[in-house]
């Protein structure tokens, strides 16, 4: 097929998505092409699955995951300049103010119900409101009018859909020893965004270790193979390219494991 024909087909496909706003009208290959084109246009790494499909009132749409907002902050130089919190009628509301590298500013809110919550449950809810606000202002400032994953769980009837022909989702279980390392690494929003992006990939790598039930020894072997670093899971001693290469191998191992089950 000629380059001109491919370009024409891609344009037709994108027009159907933009005008209809429904990815279910596309074939699996078209959805995959659209996903890749979107990541490329936003300079996001598709290996980290920055977006996920969502069935919303019969329409198939994409929503932004944590990986998307963290990478967007790096690409656009987005900094969270101020946070304000209020409580109204049992609802905790955080307002996030942000500025990008060009000086543009924006503001967005994140809200959670905290009435009758106590202890750790309330603490987690307060943190979730702050996270919502930061991610929503990032998406708004970067011109993306889509849902963030923190909003998806609050939508009645919304159903997350697995992506076709894309890297399979990594199981949420993280080995306890690796989780402790990630917790110690920490994330400092708006201060070192390249490090944030590395930690986001490290979290996906950690989930891959857990899903594949890798022994600590095998985890170390793969780590050294790709990073040549003696410090396990340390974002400060490796490059982002090395981490993405390691994540790519974990996804390949996952595909192979799934194929053997069939």
Give a written overview of the molecule.
With 262 residues, the chain is an alpha+beta fold. It has three domains: 1-59 and 149-165, no CATH class; 79-141, Double Stranded RNA Binding Domain; 176-261. It contains nine helices and six strands, in the order ααββαβββααβαααα. It has helices spanning 3-20, 28-42, 66-76, 119-141, 149-152, 176-185, 193-212, 216-227, 240-261, and strands at 51-56, 59-64, 79-88, 91-99, 105-113, 159-161. Helix 3 runs antiparallel to helix 7, helix 7 (193-212) packs parallel to helix 9 and helix 8 crosses helix 9 (240-261).
Question: Characteristics of this structure?
Answer:
Double Stranded RNA Binding Domain, 9 helices, three-stranded antiparallel β-sheet, 16% strand
What is the helix content? 40-55%
Q: Compute the gyration radius: what is it?
A: 20 Å
Sheet bearing the most strands, described?
3 strands, antiparallel
Oligomer: single chain
SSE pattern, N- to C-terminal:
HHEEHEEEHHEHHHH
Strand order of the largest sheet: 2-1-6
Strand content: 15-25%
Unreliable stretches (pLDDT < 50, length at least 5) are 1-8, 164-173, 187-191
Overall tally of structural domains: 3
What is the total tally of β strands? 6
Tell me, what's the shape? globular
Derived from helix and strand composition plus strand pairing, the structural class reads alpha+beta
Overall average residue pLDDT: 79
Span between N and C termini?
33 Å
């Amino acid at each position: 097929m000629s380059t001109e024909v491919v370009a024409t087909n891609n344009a037709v496909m994108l027009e159907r998505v933009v005008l209809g706003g429904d990815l279910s009208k596309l074939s699996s290959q078209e959805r995959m092409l659209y996903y890749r084109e979107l990541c490329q246009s936003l300079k996001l790494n598709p290996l980290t699955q920055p977006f996920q499909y969502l069935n919303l009132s019969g329409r198939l749409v994409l929503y932004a995951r944590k990986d998307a907002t963290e990478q967007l902050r790096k690409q656009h130089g987005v900094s969270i300049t101020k946070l304000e919190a209020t409580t109204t009628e049992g609802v905790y509301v955080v307002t996030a103010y942000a500025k990008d590298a060009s000086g543009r500013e924006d503001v967005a809110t994140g809200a959670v119900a905290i009435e009758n919550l106590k202890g750790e449950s309330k603490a987690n809810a307060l943190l979730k409101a702050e996270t919502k606000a930061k991610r929503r202002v990032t998406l708004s400032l970067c011109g993306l009018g889509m849902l963030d994953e923190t909003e998806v769980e609050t939508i009645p009837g919304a159903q997350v859909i697995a992506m076709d022909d894309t890297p399979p989702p990594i199981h949420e279980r993280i080995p306890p020893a690796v989780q402790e390392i990630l917790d110690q690494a920490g994330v400092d929003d708006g201060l070192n965004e390249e490090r944030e992006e590395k930690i986001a990939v490290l979290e996906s790598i950690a989930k891959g270790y857990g899903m594949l039930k890798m022994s600590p020894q095998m985890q170390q072997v793969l780590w050294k193979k790709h990073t040549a670093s003696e410090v396990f899971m340390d974002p400060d001693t490796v490059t982002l390219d090395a981490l993405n290469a390691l994540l790519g191998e974990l996804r390949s191992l996952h595909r192979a494991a799934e194929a053997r089950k069939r």
